[in-house]
Amino acid sequence: MIFNPTVTTTYRGYFYVGACGAGNETGPGQTVNFRVTYLGPVPAPANDEPCSATPIGPLVLPFPNGCTVPFSGTTVGATNSVGNGLGAGGLVPTSECTAPAVQYNGGDVWFQVPVPPSGLLGIATTDGGVCAGGFALYTAAVCGGPYTMLAGSGVNTGLCAIEGVSAPSGSDAGVVIDGPALGLIPGQMVYIRYWERNNNENGTFTICAYEPIPPPNDNPCGALVIPTALTCTPVEYTTENATLLSGVTANPANTCVGPVATSDVWFAVVVPPSGAMTIEASAGTLTDMAMSWYRFNSGAICGPGTFNQIGCDNNGGPGNMPRINSQTAGIALVVGETIYVRLWNQPDNLYGTFSICAVENIPPPNDNPCGAINLDVTPSCEPTVGTTESASPTPNGFTGGTIMPPYPVCGSGPGTDVWYSLTVPNDLIAPYGISFETTAGILLDGAFQIYTATGGCATSNLVLTPVGACTPNAGGMPNLTLNIGAGISAGQQVYVRVWRQSAPDGNFGICAVRTDPIPCIGSATDPLGPTVDYVNNTNDTQTYCSSKAGDVVTLTFSQFILENNWDYLYIYDGPTTASPLIGTYTGSNSQAL
To answer: How far apart are CA 331 and CA 309, in angstroms?
Structure first.
């Protein structure tokens, strides 16, 4: 084998029998012949300095549209370029390429390529013997300098592509740049400084330059139309070769994250007849994106023109993906107008795929009191599933009736609210009442208000009067008990108004539970009934089941007379006599049964 040391230190060799790894080391008495031959210093590659940079793009146009002609290179023997001012602050990758840590440790080689006619330049690399490659981009009028590193984004003040850190493919180092946006002109020479990230696993690699073809929706002028539907049907798209916005002005660029420093793509959505919609992105190879909505303001859509931002989100959807609901976000839309939607990868300039859908916001049927969903009052909680998604605020004077003061203010006050109704059972007596309970689904943070009702929607005179406290739950879902004679009465019509506090809208569970003891609901006797003794050798098995899983069965004995120590009653915890035995009983004493 040939070993190229990268630092001056002591190296140690291990010998294994059969296969490498612990347990296969050579043992006592075994002979190993080992010879070390010094081959002399490794010569630096021909392109070790920028003035000998290897041309990797066609110096005679045209450029290819993809990486079809890769050039081979090596970092073996490469040195740290410090001449021509390249060792000064502001030009050294140790200070300019630092996300998430220092990604340069010397040992670089150089390439050069002119900016293609379109101004778009793509550079791609593939590791060979190199473990993890990276590169930075520079300009200079002549190879002797002075040099300027192209501007980067975020904590990387220089434009760098680092394998596994800031590469568009998410793996090997690569980048696509919009030359004019960086102050470059077609034909201007760009110098590429390539290195092995830690300078300890040097070797071969390939590199190529090409003129990328941006996606058709790279700018608002080519925005792809997304139809609105009643349900979300995501369609996959890509940011491959997308560039930064140019030709038009986005005002402001965005308000939910920092500046849009990565490639973006655009969509157009026509506001549906309901006047409200939700647009949601879901992850593909990209898992952390941001989204802004814009309304065209003035000029020309294809530029020069101005777009005004009306909404922005970076994590309201699944995972770290964006989602904007026009109602929740308080965005007033006009039916038939076109909204422009901009998406980009939030943390870095990685390219990749994602999916997006647009849904028309159709209010749920119980969006107002006259569409309230009926709740059964039951002995135990049997949740009815509802949702606040696409609900609208109910005005105090709604179609069909009136909400009386005081108006609820807890939980930030009703926003996207939905309604339920119930009738208090006639057999419910004081001091018992009804426990109103909600459980979380997608909606995690809700509030509600209970109302008593007079009149009705059919006669347009439904009057709702608040009873009990406006009930939030400090970041959770609310519960409240109202007793007969202390807010509600038997036979009364009651309405429940539920809304979200701060968490996203979504589904939840709601139930109404009576708090009085459950009455006896059946009786059982021996085979001959309560007035006749059972006959000799009677063997009778009866099974009692709860109405739903989790409930218990209670047996209350009003009469219990067996022949002591001869006849027995056995009770089992389960459906057969093979189930666990709860107890054995005999005689005239029911023993607490």
So the answer is: 11
